[in-house]
Structure formats: structure tokens, C-alpha cells
Amino acid sequence: MSQALTELFESNRRWAAASQAQDPGFFSRLLSQQTPQYLWIGCADSRVPANEILGLLPGDVFVHRNLANVLVHSDLNALSVMQYAVDQLQVRHIMVVGHYGCGGVTAALQGQRVGIADNWLRHVQDVRGKHRAFIDGLPDDDARLRALCELNVLEQALNVCGTTVVQDAWARGHAVVVHGWVYGLHNGLLDDLQINAQRTADVEPAYARALVALHARHAPAPA
Ligand code: CO
Predict the structure, then answer these.
(1) Rounded to 5 degrees, what are φ and ψ at 156?
(2) Residue 184 confidence (pLDDT)
(3) Where are the beta strands (DSSP E) in the chain?
(4) Dist CA 132 CA 207 (whole Å)
(5) pLDDT in tens, 65-107
(6) How far does the centroid of ligand 1 lie from the alpha carbon of residue 28, in Å?
(7) What DSSP character marks residue 222?
(8) How far is ligand 1, taken at its centre, from the CA of residue 42, in Å?
């Protein structure tokens, strides 16, 4: 095995020993069950690891990550994760978490060809198309990228709300709340984009309020 990979195994052994020393029984408890409260749907970017950002341990957050934190209704992988999290694990919160400086969102914004992912990122281009007038009205590329990172979170959170998984959960009275957050690579902080929906009737008003707030945040400062 290469030196780098050997170091990974050594690092893993140190981590397991330290975890066990700090909390004897930690692993044996996890062996019998997991009871996470949260489903994190985030970007695959190596700089946005769900557990570390939240300061949570193994067992605390169920995670699905893909390029540019996209949730589309035909994605059997994501839907399966969602159904398991909601129906079996009974998570109470689903958060779609985007991040500023997202490479996938950048590619979608600029129409860069990156390969097979172009087809996946087409979903983010659709978000761009839906909000074209607003995005094109922003002063520069940085502002447009920040806005599209946020808008992509709102749209994907809206998609989460529209899945059969969440619709069925709400219909049977399971109180799962859908959120949209964005993470700053530059400061390590999460921001809540305030789309908090926990029943079907919430969805459109919550989305509309969050969009108004997003637009206001990007409004030019008064001269
Ligand atoms: Co990203």
C-alpha cells in the first residue's frame, strides 16, 4: 500500500482509539442502532463535510451528497436515502446545504463544459434560467455566483418538499421540517435561508418569503 494510504489507516486507528478512550461504549452503542435527527443533503465538495461542520459525531446525521446539492425527482439514489431517513429513521429535519464558491454552480452559471457532469448540472442551469432576470441584474460575477448558490438551495429545498417521501410523511402527520442553508467556505459558518416548511400549506409561502429575503439581501446598497 502507498505511504499516503498507510497513513490513512494509521490515522483511523488513532481516531478509533481516541473515540473509545473519550467515551467507552461509543462504538457498541452505535452498533445496535442509529437515531439521527437530521438528513443533510449537501455538495460532495471535500470542504463541506456535514458532521465536522455541525460538530456532530457518527450516528448524529444521515448524509446524502452529490455535485451541487441537487435533488431531482427522478434520482432514485437520493429518493432512497430520503425515504430511509424519513420513514425508517424518523429524522425531524431535512436540510439542503449549498455553499458559496461551489464549483458545480460556477460551471452551471458560466456554461462551462466539464464532462458528463454537464448533464447533472443542467438542473442548476434550470435554476439559473428560472431566475435569469434577477441574476443578470446583479453587478458582477461574484454577486451572480453567490446568488445562484443561494437560489439553488431554495429550489432544491422546494424539490425536497415536492417528493412523494416528504408529501406522504406530512400526509400521515410526521413532523419533518425542510430547511435551506448555505455554508461559507471562507468563515466556516452556516446561514439559514429561511425556507422552513413542515406541511404542504407552508411550502409556497415559505419559498416566496425566502425568495423575497434573498432578493433583498442582494439589493444594491442605497447611494
Ligand atoms: Co459544491
Answers:
(1) -70, -35
(2) 98
(3) 38-43, 61-66, 93-99, 177-183, 190-192
(4) 17
(5) 999 999 999 999 999 999 999 999 999 999 999 999 999 999 9
(6) 34
(7) P
(8) 8
Of the candidates 48, 74, 73, the one whose C-alpha atom is nearest the C-alpha of residue 63 is 48
Q: Are 103 and 110 in contact (CB under 8 A)?
A: no
Residue 43 annotated among the catalytic residues of the structure: yes
Q: Pick from 219, 72, 211, 203: which is nearest to 150 by CA?
A: 211
Q: Separation of 70 CA from ligand 1 center, angstroms?
A: 10
- 99 is annotated as an active-site residue: yes
Would you call 60 a catalytic residue per the annotation?
A: no
Q: Tens of pLDDT along 167-183?
A: 999 999 999 999 999 99
Strand partners, 40: 63, 95
Q: Which three cell numbers stand for residue 197?
A: 416548511
The CATH 3.40.1050.10 domain(s) of the chain lie at: 34-217
CATH 3.40.1050.10 applies to domain 34-217: yes
149 is catalytic: no
Question: Whose CA is closest to 176, among 154, 143, 193, 200?
Answer: 200
Which residue among 13, 14, 29, 47 is the active-site one?
A: 47
From ligand 1's centre to the CA of 172, what distance in Å?
34
Q: Name the nearest CA neighbour of 195 among 152, 164, 163, 165.
A: 152
Residue 223: predicted pLDDT: 65
